[in-house]
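=== RUN LOG ===
request id: a7f3
mode: sequence -> structure
chains: 1
length: 422
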Amino acid sequence: MISVEEALEKILSYVEVLEPEDKPILDCLGQVLAEDVYSTIDIPPLDNSSMDGYAVRAEDSYGASQSSPKNLTVVGEVAAGSMPAAEIEPGTAIRIMTGAPLPEGADAIVQFEDTDEASRRLSHSDLSQIGILRQVEKGLNVRYRGEDIARDGLVLKQGKVLRPSELGVLASLGYSIARVIRRPVVAVLATGNELIDIDQPLAAGKIHNSNTYTISAQVLRYGGIPNILGIGRDSLESLSGKIEEGLSSDMLITSGGVSLGDYDIVKDVLAKRGEIALRTVCMKPGKPSAFGVIKKVEGGKEKMVPHLGLPGNPVSSMVTFEQFARPAILKMMGREDFAKPTIQAVIEEDVINDDGRRMYARVIVTRREGKYYARATGPQGSGILSSMVKANGLAIVPENTEGVKAGDIVQVQMLDWSGDLM
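=== RESULT ===
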């Protein structure tokens, strides 16, 4: 057996970053930018107002107060999307809306609340004059040209993960298309004679194929595109045919068929088609895992498709995916942040580790009085998929220990965050 770290290092050494593609920006959410983005414009393009109010010369407000307003002559109005028709001269003001360009001669915006406009409207007074009720300084409520993004400046660096904010910036620069590292297509194959499709009635000795759906959902969650191959039966012919179907994808993930049983023959098929880089990992659940590459000739060239063989037990499959498939998918997408978010938590009960492997215990993490606490979801068998439903984290019990005691501090890989954990 090799350690989790050694297994991950080995897997990632066989995985390459995929090529870039050009896509509409809204389709790029979560993908990695494949090139630097520079601005060809200033944002904002002109000095403009950040408030509804009056554009003035700051010095015309000096000495103004609630009890002693400074009255200015209103010489115009400007809305967002239009240009001022007049300039600001001493003793004048222009009514202005948020986002409207700053008139020539103005150097501050007095918001409506700091003028007597409301009282003038109530009393039907002359609005050709406005009373300024406070002294303001130059630059108040003014957004300057290029203060957000300057022309010719580097805005987004290659390798940036595109979130809604980055997509908004691209849109503000006039980009409708972005160049990003493409998402990997991941073939998903469940194996075993005991499996039937989820829309088929259960027969004696059969179980529904849940692994295809948990694995495919994990692929989707971390940015990949699942290519569902269905069920491979426990024969060289069936598995070879299904695996051949998956070799058009960027990666193949199988579940089942990698332990030591008489019918666990996925590893045998792999040995014939390519190279097996690892067979067992010092972890629980998930010991019987396999990784290698499958060779395929395509267009006269040999193609190497990474293959990850997950255990057949549903919890083992999901936990192993988190440790190995997730980082591999992220690397293919150009990501560099492979680690799961990890916290320190107080374990609330004893957890026994009886065979020396690193244990990933399904736990419920809560936050109380500024500390994180973790408690097991219940029975920890590798076939109890409901334990993953209840869990929001995986408590790590180190290898070569007998477990942890209630009150000990443990590392927890977080599967999910919720508001009550913040």
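=== NOTES ===
The chain has four domains: 4-18+183-332, 22-43+149-181, 48-143, 342-421.
Residues 314-332 form the longest helix (19 residues).
=== END ===
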